[in-house]
Please model this.
Amino acid sequence: MRKIISAVAVSLALCATTTAQAADTASCITQQEMDGIITYFLPKVFDQVAQKCSSVLPADSYVRTSLPSLATQFENRKIAAWPMAKSAFLKLGQSEGKEIAGVSDDVLRPLIDEALSARMSIPIKPSTCGDVNDIMEALSPLSPEQTVHLASAIITVATRDGKAILPCPRRAD
Model:
């Protein structure tokens, strides 16, 4: 799962064309934007897990029996997540963000989807598919929202000192 989360973080970084600037809300990724971009990415992640692991896992494995349903749940959430994901994409590509900010969503979404498909490759070896299956099954009691929040929190912590993805500073609660 760490490889999957790392791959998502790397894919987010690949969408960025400039290094992050000061961590104000104009350039940092808010928690809502991180949740949006994770929700938007997860169907692609699930597709890649299924493609790479279905042939090596037993027929009764979680990936083969339950992942398709989970992927559908997340695919159905992509449209609602789009506004926050779009905001994050525009921040990640700050140099192009102003130029594409006015592009209609009907044009922008397919472009982003194509770029994600071309750039996102999760390094899952057949020998690790059992581990991936076990982790996904362990996470299965979580709701989609809880799954997104967990992935978002992990990526936020892992990238806090990064250059390409800059989460907004955590407020003192």
Notes: Helices lie at 2-15, 31-53, 62-65, 67-92, 94-100, 105-119, 129-139, 144-159. Residues 4-23 have pLDDT under 50 and may be disordered. The chain is about 65% helix and 0% strand. Residues 19 and 164 are 5 Å apart (CA to CA).
